[in-house]
Write a structure and sequence with these properties.
The chain is of the alpha+beta class and 251 residues long. It has two domains: 99 residues, no CATH class; 97 residues, no CATH class. The longest helix is centred in the first third of the chain and has 19 residues. The radius of gyration is 21 Å and the shape is elongated. The C terminus is likely disordered.
Length: 251
């Protein structure tokens, strides 16, 4: 498994030809570019699928409004009786599968707004449930749009745990002594994004828009274009038809 220092070294010698001291780019700049590449690759190609990490371990990127890092749920979400809408961890790109404790099979979903209206007329009550705000029962399906929330139709009548399989971003930036979270076969692509950013550095010795565009195109060829909001909604709604065959899990 490649570690950050190896990626920086390869990037410097084989791609940027930056071998003379003082370097045009610092190790920190190149490492940061590779980390940005990992995030971009996950947004474009959904490289990290996770159903086993219960929480985010309190990473700084998921700090609350106070600015203090706190542990937030990731693949295990505690549900409250009568509540149907829950904010998801900002590391989650979309929910592929959701199964509640005590259930043998996953819930249908994620449904699109259109599918929810078609299958559960009048679902949008004041609490986001089918019927009145006080109604509840066994959830019948879930939605994962338009914001980073999960909505259950119906709200659960009692507290339970939702076990999620999600597409997500890396939990931690990798360092010189650690490895990217994505598989090693994608590491070369991360260096393409770092090279793109390196050649965008606003300095007479580094700024090269032609080379920056070349490495951006190389990155896009491997991981695809960055999806817009409409495309992300489409991916979420398509999961209803492409989710895995129901199996027991999460117990």
């Amino acid at each position: 498994m490649s570690i950050g220092s190896e990626l920086v070294s390869i990037l410097r010698t084989d791609i940027l030809d930056d071998t003379k001291v003082p370097y045009l780019w610092s190790d920190a700049e190149l490492l940061r570019g590779c980390n940005y590449g990992e995030v971009q690759a996950c947004r474009r190609a959904h490289l990290i699928i996770d159903g086993s990490t219960p929480n985010d371990f309190g990473t700084s990127a998921t700090a609350g409004s106070s600015g203090t890092a706190g542990v937030r749920p990731l693949c295990q979400l505690s549900l409250t009786a009568g509540k149907s809408v829950y904010s998801l961890n900002p590391k989650i790109l979309f929910v592929k599968r959701c199964q509640l404790s005590g259930m043998s099979y996953p819930l249908p979903g994620p449904l699109s707004l259109f599918e929810a209206e078609e299958q559960f007329a009048g679902w949008m009550g004041t609490s986001g449930t089918v019927g009145t705000a006080s109604s509840g029962g066994t959830p019948l399906a879930f939605m994962n749009e338009p914001t980073n929330t999960i909505t259950f139709l119906l709200a659960p009548v009692e507290a339970c745990t939702a076990y999620l399989i999600v597409s997500r971003l890396p939990l931690f930036p990798f360092l010189l002594a650690t490895s990217p979270e994505v598989e090693e076969k994608y590491h070369e692509g991360l260096m393409n994004w770092a090279a793109h950013l390196a050649y965008m550095k606003n300095d007479s010795d580094t700024f090269n828009p032609q080379k920056a565009k070349y490495y951006e195109d190389q990155f896009t060829a491997q991981f695809g274009a960055l999806p817009d909001a409409k495309s992300e909604r489409l991916v979420k709604s398509m999961m209803m038809n492409t989710r895995m065959r129901p199996v027991r899990f999460g117990y």
